[in-house]
Amino acid sequence: MRKTVFAALVAAGLFTLQAAPLSFGPEFDKTHVVAVTDVVANPAAYLQQDITVTGKIQAVCKKQGCWMTLAAAEDAPTFRIKVRDGDMVFPLSSMGKTAYAHGRIQPLPMNLQASIDYLEEQAEKSGSVFDPTKVTEPVTLYQLVPTSVEITD
């Protein structure tokens, strides 16, 4: 009888099972969050400080689960969260879920040729036309190296 009532409630949408958040690292304050769009717009402003970012998970490393990208919306710019292989393993099943990541921004300066190669690859992925002669200065990429991450539904 209980199974029948439970099944009827679930089928009617009156009862749902909520999965517990998937947590890595120590607990952290999720009330002071920086929007992914703000970090993408000006990552250098957040250097040398601990921050918490949140966003929808757009991609996850398929080999080691060592990185994921977050975005405020599906077509918005993404921001990369990266850990050392094995420190945290982000599951592929977390794509589309919300993540909170707490840590520090790390700059990744590139030389001019690496910048051209990277920008060409990004243009190819997005289907854009790329002109390498327009790249005259090296770029710096930024990523968050987290001490803690929480993935929720």
Sequence-ordered SSE layout with sheet pairings:
Elements: H1 2-11, E1 22-24, E2 34-35, H2 36-41, E3 50-60, E4 67-71, E5 79-82, E6 98-109, H3 112-126, E7 140-152
Protein name: DUF4920 domain-containing protein
Organism: Rheinheimera lutimaris
Signal peptide: 1-19
Describe the structure.
With 153 residues, the chain is of the alpha+beta class. It has a domain at 20-108 and 141-152: OB fold (Dihydrolipoamide Acetyltransferase, E2P), CATH 2.40.50. The chain contains three helices and seven strands. It has helices spanning 2-11, 36-41, 112-126; strands spanning 22-24, 34-35, 50-60, 67-71, 79-82, 98-109, 140-152. The chain has a five-stranded mixed β-barrel. A hairpin with a 7-residue loop joins strand 4 (67-71) and strand 5 (79-82). The chain is globular, with a radius of gyration of 19 Å. The chain starts with a helix and ends with a strand.
